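In this supplementary section we document a worked example of the pipeline. Step one takes a protein sequence of length 392 as its only input; no multiple sequence alignment statistics are reported here. Step two produces a three-dimensional model, which step three serialises into structure tokens for compact storage. The input and output of this example are shown verbatim.
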Amino acid sequence: MTLVMLIALLSLGAWAYLLFGHGGFWRGQECDDGPPPAEPAGGWPSVVAIVPARNEADVVAQSIGSLLRQEYEGSLRVILVDDQSSDGTAAVAREAAADCPERLTVLPGNPLPAGWTGKLWALSQGIDHAESLAEPPDYLLLSDADIGYAADSLSRQVAIAASGGFALVSRMAKLRCENFPEQALIPAFIFFFQMLFPFAWVNRADRRTAAGAGGCMLVHRRDLEAAGGVASIRGALIDDCALAAKLKGQGPIRLELSPRVVSLRPYRSLNEIRRMVARSAYAQLRFSPLLLLGTVLGMALIYVAPPSLAIFAQGGARLLGLLAWLAMAWSYQPTLRFYRLSPLWGLALPAIAAMYLGFTIDSAWQHSQGRGGMWKGRAQASSSGTPGTGAS
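The serialised model returned by step three reads:
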């Protein structure tokens, strides 16, 4: 057997496993698109939404407004933690709550202490304030400042959490996908995330796989406290997956795609998406050069080899490469349908994957230069910190 034929067999075998043995990650079946759940038997529990925000004046009004417009029959309050913003984020948020100012609390964030990432420090301050209320809430909605919610989103999420006894119910927001850079790269971000953490495995109590979507995480307050709170993951750059792993030790968790939870943040260029991915990609690899090398080789086998074989190889190796390429394109179709994009984007997945591999290598380079985890002017990644990956 020639080396080319061996590579072709391994590549097609890898895609056979991904399609039929990896939790059906590509199908996108774990989605918040069913009928509305019934009201919890004990009535609607109280919720406090905590929104950490650092220089988010361009999106925070939409986000806060969508939270305050929730059609939720239980008690709902919103706490925005202004993390040292310099663009008037707090004032914009207050203006968005002008019709119901009593439901919004704006906390000025304290300076970032050593050992914490900015988002987790802001969340910690908001959680402390929620717990100090005369009637602490049953649930905490940990929400990013660039997330918008459909009016029925919270009630659906709470009904599932309360009825199923979930410690965490998380929604993967539908990211913006309007311009060419977004259409080229954003659906693949969701596809690769599902490949890393198959949602069906996350949602099974008998699997260790744990993951969350940090933009929208509904957590039971007592379960969060029992898990050690956000202080237990204070240095985690991939905080959502780190928190999900902690909470899965307290009870079942659930992660779903959702058309009702949307990201308000635009990505106007490929470079903006590169920065978003590079911020945490190397942390996902536990800051390990060996894991980075393994990722490069694995991505080359799974994504680069099939089209290369289909175009340049001969005979059986070419046929196997073509089959692997078609399997890859087929697996991408549910994600493309979710974003209402042409199925032809499936054929471009090898090139898209190569770009993501470049972003990952760039993430490792940025970390080596002391710029790891760069966000809003802060470099937060540390090889001694908790990377926060889920176990499988």
